[in-house]
Amino acid sequence: MLTIPEMHPCDILIAHQDELERMLVLTFQKHKSEIIGNDYLVLGTLEPSSWRKREKEPLEFGNVQEHVHDFKEYLDVKYTPAHWGPAKK
């Protein structure tokens, strides 16, 4: 399960694609397996109370929008690990 610690208004939410996709597979493999492997777009974050309730009361796309907070900005961050090597000329 992918969980994000409590966020403050100035925080940036970072999700690793492999962790997010693993969560999507675990979430949808039993109920909507045909959507696994398709393109997707993350639109926002779900209220923590709604996330906890989802096990008892499944969220449908029609009513989940009431509990989602949209992102103000989307950034695609590319990471290059630091390493030792010759200086670039």
The strands making up the biggest β-sheet line up spatially as: 1-2
What is the N-to-C order of secondary-structure elements (H for helix, E for strand)?
Answer: HEHHE
Helix content bin = 10-25%
- Tell me the fraction of residues in β-strands, as a range: 5-15%
* Mean residue pLDDT: 76
* Tally of domains: 2
- Biggest sheet character: 2 strands, antiparallel
Structural class: alpha+beta
The count of β-strands is 2
| Termini separation | 44 Å
Shape: elongated
Number of helices: 3
- Computed over alpha carbons, the radius of gyration is 17 Å
Task: Give the low-confidence spans.
Answer: none
Write the layout of secondary structure elements.
Layout: H1 17-28, E1 44-46, H2 48-53, H3 61-64, E2 68-70
Antiparallel strand pairs: 1-2
How would you describe this protein?
There is one protein chain. The chain has 89 residues and is of the alpha+beta class. The protein has three helices and two strands. The chain folds into two domains: 11-40, no CATH class; 42-81, no CATH class. Strands 1-2 form a two-stranded antiparallel sheet.
